[in-house]
Input
Amino acid sequence: MTAILRPNSNEIVRFDNVGLRYGVGAETLSDISFTLARGAFYFIAGPSGAGKTSLLKLLYLAHRPSRGQISLFGEDMVTLERRRLPGFRRRIGVVFQDFRLVDHMSAYDNVALPLRISGVSERDLAGPVNEMLDWVNLSARQHALPSTLSGGEQQRVAIARAVIARPQLLVADEPTGNVDPDMAVRLLQLFEGLNRAGTTVVVATHDIHLMNRVPGAQMMRVTKGRLADPTGALRYPPASRQIMGFEP
Amino acid sequence: MNDYGHGNGGDPPPPILPSAGMRGPLPWMVAVMTMLAMLGLAAAIGLTPAADALSGQIAGRATIQLVDVDPLVRRDHVRRVRDVLRDAPYVAAMRTVPETELRAMASQWLGDGVIETGMPLPALIDVDLVESGRSSGTDSGMSRLRAAVAEVAPSARVIAHADWLGPVAGLMTSVGWIAAGAALLLMVIAAAVAVLSARAALSSQRATIDILHLVGATDVQVARLFQRQIARDTMVGAGIGGIAGVFLVALIGWQLQLVVATLASGSHRASYAFILLLPPLIVAIAVFFARLSVIRALRAMP
Output
C-alpha cells in the first residue's frame, strides 16, 4: 500500500516510494521511502553496489527519480522546473567519494567556488574561505593545485567547498574512503561540528567503526536497491507518527 | 564582469575553464576563414561594378570591317559608309582606324614583314552608338547600323563588341557573385567551427560543468563561460585574419588598379570599407551560435 506522507515542518527531506532506473535496465533503487529530520545526523550503510551512491545522487539533485515523490525543503523536486534547481543545489553541500576538485584551480579557488557562483565579491569571500581552510587545517596549502595534494588534503578541500556556503543539508559519499583512520576521525568531527551548528548531515559509508563514533546518529541500510526499515522508524519517524495519529 | 558573471571587487578570480588560446586550433581556423571571406567579399565588390562598367562600355560599340581585296573598292566603301553614318541620328561617334595602326596591329601577329608580302589589310571603322540606340531589337541602333552599312557596302561586316566581350562581362558578374557566396559560406563555416569547438570544450570540460551545476551554477552562468572563451578565441582569430585580409586586398587592389581602372575607381573605393565589417560580424555570428549550442546541450543535462 502506498502511503501519502504529510509534510512536517521538522522534515528537510521526504522520499515516497521512489524508484530510480538508469536507461532501460532494472531499477537501481526501488520503493524507497523515508524522511530526514532537520538538524539530524544520518549514516547510510550497505554493501558496495547496493545503491548508496544512487540514493545520494537523488538527495543532492544530480538525478530525478524514475517514479515516486521527492520533497526537499518542502518543495516537490520531481516536478520542479530545471531553472529553479540551482537555487536548491546551493542549499546542499556535497562531498564526493572521488573529491571532484577542479584540477586547474588552487585549493583556495576550489573552496571559493560556491561563493563565487552565488555572486559573493572577491573582497567578501576572502575571510570565509581563509577561515574554512584554517578549519580544515589547509591554510598553508591554499595555493596548491589538487594534483599536488595528498588524498586526505584533497578530501578536506572537498569538505571545505561543501560547507563554505553553510548548507542546510550536507551529503557525503564515503568521505573517509581515501584517508587514514586518524584523518577519518578528524573528518567526522568536522561533520559533527557542522551538525551541531544545525546542518542535516547524511554520510554514506560501510565503516562500522565510524558509525559507532556518532552515538546520536540514525542509520539507514540499503540492500539491493531497497531501504531496510523493519521498524518503520525511517518511514514514520517519531515526530511524523504523532502528527499522523499513530501515537497519542 | 568576471568569469562568474558578477562585477566583483578585488583581484579577478582565475578562469574556471582552461583555454588553449593561441595554442588551440580555433583562432587560426577563424583567422584563415576571415581572411578568405574578406578576399571573397573584396572580389565581389570589385568585380560586379567592373562587369557592369564593361557591359555599359561595349553595349553601344561596333566595328565595321571592310574586307574588299581591291584597295580602290575598299576605299570607296569606306567613304560610302562614312557618308551614310555621318549624319545618322543613332551614331554618336565614328572613327576610321588609320592604316598605320592596322599595320602595327597585324605585325603583332604576323611579324614585321607582313607589309612586304602585299597581303591586303581590311579597313576598320569604330562606331559608338548613341545611348538611346543601345537597346536590343529590330529597331535598335545596331540593327539600323547593319542595315545602313549593308545598303552601301554589302561585303562589309558589322561586329558588335557585345557579341564577343559580352560573355567576358557575364563571366565577371558570375565570378563576383560566386565570390560573394564564398564569403558568406566562409562566415557560416567560421560559425560552425566555433560551435564545434564549443561542443568539444563542453565535452572535455564535462566534469567541471557537473561540479559547477552541483554547487548551484545556472545554465546561463555556465554558458557564459563558454561564450567568453569562444569570443576571446574568435576575436583573436578574426583580428589576425582581418589584418592579413586588409593587407592582401590592398595589395591586390593596388596591382589591379594598374590594369583595370574601374576596379579602384573613386565611387567603388568606399565600398571596400564593407570588408572591415566582416571580422566583427564573424565574431558575433560565431559567439551567438556557440552560445545557442551550449545552452541547448546544457538543458539536455540532468
Summary: The CA atoms of residues 41 and 215 of chain A lie 10 Å apart. The longest strand of chain A covers residues 11-21. Chain A has eight helices and ten strands. The interface with chain B takes residues 60-64, 82-83, 86-87, 89-90, 94, 100, 102, 104-106, 109, 112-114, 116-123, 126, 161, 165 of chain A (CB under 8 Å).
